[in-house]
Amino acid sequence: MAIKNRKNYRRFRIKQRIRKIISGTPERPRLTIFRSNKEIYAQVIDDLAGQTLVAASSKSKDMAGEKVTKLVQATKVGALIAQKAKDAGITTVVFDRNGYLYHGRVKSLAEAVRKGGLKF
């Protein structure tokens, strides 16, 4: 990967370091997040099968048209992914912060997922 943007390169290196260790299995799938400037996305992935089991984002129909801060948006996405995962029969996951610092929107999403009943 060419070093075009040092910030993205740093995140990429952190992400590779995390993914060396963390992998999703059918018993404990991986909960990964992606944070853009405007939106936040979360997926529960089984890496052995290579499938996304459950996904939620701030662009979903449940949250369309709401004018809220990004922190509140992340909390709602966390609650939504927790509910969808429980409906799919998933109780425990491995949290993959995807190279982002555990702070702000990432932290609020993770806390909402824990509050929603998922264990990690």
Provide structural commentary.
The chain has 120 residues and is an alpha+beta fold. The protein has a single domain, classed as Nucleotidyltransferase, domain 5, CATH 3.30.420.100. The protein has three helices and four strands; from the N terminus they run αβββαβα. A hairpin with a 4-residue loop joins strand 2 and strand 3. Helix 2 packs parallel to helix 3. It is globular. The mean pLDDT is 92.
Which SSEs are present, and which pair or pack?
Layout: H1 6-21, E1 30-35, E2 40-46, E3 51-57, H2 70-87, E4 94-96, H3 105-115
Parallel strand pairs: 1-4
Antiparallel strand pairs: 1-2, 2-3
Helix pairs in contact: 2-3
Per CATH, the class reads Alpha Beta
Percent of residues in beta strands?
15-25%
What is the share of helical residues? 25-40%
Mean pLDDT: 92
Sheet with the most strands, sense and barrel status: 4 strands, mixed
Could you spell the SSE succession in H and E letters? HEEEHEH
As laid out across the biggest beta sheet, the strand order is 3-2-1-4
Quote the CATH topology.
Answer: Nucleotidyltransferase, domain 5
Q: What is the annotated CATH architecture?
A: 2-Layer Sandwich
Q: Please report the number of helical segments.
A: 3
Assign the structural class, choosing from mainly alpha, mainly beta, alpha/beta, alpha+beta, or little secondary structure. Answer: alpha+beta
Q: Please mark out the parts with pLDDT under 50 across 5 or more consecutive residues, or reply none.
A: none
**Distance between the terminal alpha carbons, to the nearest Å?**
31 Å
Q: What does the radius of gyration come to?
A: 14 Å
